[in-house]
Amino acid sequence: MSTSEKRDRPAGPFGAIRVVECGAGVSAAFAAKMLADLGADVVKVEPPEGDWTRRRGPFPNDEPDPERSALFAYLNINKRGVVADLTRAEGREMLGRLLERADILIHNVAPAERAGHGLESAALCAAYPRLIVTSISMYGDSGPRANWRGYELNASNAGGWAYLSPGASPYPDLPPLKAFGHQCDFQAGVHAATVTLAAYRARAKSGRGQALDVSEQECIAAMLEMNFMHYTYAGRETSRLGQRGLGPWFIGDCADGKIFVICVEEDQWRRLVELMGNPEWAKDELFKDRVSRARNLDALKALMSEWLAGWKVEELFRKGQDEYRIPFAPCNTMRQIYENGHLAERDFFVAFDQPGIGRIRLPGAPSKYGVTQWALRRAAPRLAEHGEEIFVGELGIAREQFASLRKAGVV
């Protein structure tokens, strides 16, 4: 490594790690982002038309612009960007030049497309023995569904999450409900980043890289809490339908928003009754214990609704928590989270200047470090922004050759 390269390497605990990211969308980009934010030198390889997240908003003033996507900016701040058409031999050759000096490759190209993109795990491990190849796919690299296509909606249902949502629904005619956005893709990214670092640590001992196969379906199935145990131990199949076994457990309406009422311990219930002013109805047999209160939740909610409507969310939350030790919880809107005083005190949202967008506040690191450096250091790349810098300046490709490849639409 040259003196100038050493000087330009990013600070942070992962400053010595070189990562190449391929594919499109959220999962691989988020996995690489987690490493980039802690200092890794991440080179994002996009197809000539760019990652599809460039065309996904929100955009400033709702004016679509592939260089001004907030989703793309969030996922790709701290990375450098190049273009390489991996469907062409010349593009795959350029990828190979990147991988010669890389420690890690993270991608989410589907198994059926990898051969045509130069991304087959076994071939890569043979060609680059020290390289860690992390592939993310919907169903994994093996099994009867390995070559099936899948998207966020598939992952949520195939992994079992949607079948459990919304919980305790009384409407069997309504279908399963997936969580908003790309939550399954983000979960796959977190898993991929974690196992990739474990493999990097293992390489420090063995000197050899390895291929990692991350299945998005399995990432979701792995976080279904006790629902598998209900089936294997008790023979019960949980679902979104039915009612809670204990109560009260519901979301109610206050004067200015919604609050989560969860009060299933008997001592909590007694304190809640006291907070409500000891209404006469609370002595009814319908509400004699937590099982009865769950069975008669509709009646309980109706009786509590007028009382709840007399409170503001934050006032009731504080009163319940501080004075009565009742686990109320505000149901925050996105604006309330963005303006949350606790998150502000912890500097969770970070201001950053992104060219084309301006100054924006983005979610920062969800953890704090005693010594480790975390920072947003580099704007998300414009399409092909660092091609010449990397291919010519760092990899030594002749400027004339690079210009010819660019003219041909390869880079």
Strand segment tally: 11
Largest sheet: 6 strands, parallel
**Helix-strand topology string:** HEHEHEHEHHEHHEHHEEHHHHEHHEEHH
Distance between the amino and carboxyl termini: 24 Å
What's the tally of helices? Answer: 18
Q: Tell me, what is the CATH class of the largest domain?
A: Alpha Beta
**Based on helices, strands and strand pairing, what is the structural class?**
alpha/beta
CATH superfamily heading of the largest domain: Crotonobetainyl-coa:carnitine coa-transferase, domain 1
Using only C-alpha atoms, the radius of gyration works out to: 26 Å
Low-confidence parts: 1-10
Q: What overall form do the CA principal axes indicate?
A: elongated
CATH architecture assignment of the largest domain: 3-Layer(aba) Sandwich
User: What share of residues is helical?
Assistant: 25-40%
- Strand arrangement in the largest pleated sheet: 3-2-1-4-5-6
CATH topology of the largest domain: Rossmann fold
- Average residue-wise pLDDT: 93
Strand-residue proportion: 5-15%
Q: What's the structural domain tally?
A: 2
Structure description:
It is a single chain. With 411 residues, this protein is of the alpha/beta class. It folds into 2 domains: 281 residues, Crotonobetainyl-coa:carnitine coa-transferase, domain 1 (Rossmann fold), CATH 3.40.50.10540; 88 residues, formyl-coa transferase, domain 3 (2-Layer Sandwich). It contains 18 helices and 11 strands. A 6-stranded parallel beta sheet has the order 3-2-1-4-5-6, with helices on both faces. The protein has a 3-stranded antiparallel beta sheet with strand order 7-8-9, with helices on one face. The chain has a two-stranded antiparallel ribbon with strand order 10-11. Helix 2 crosses helix 8. The radius of gyration is 26 Å and the shape is elongated.
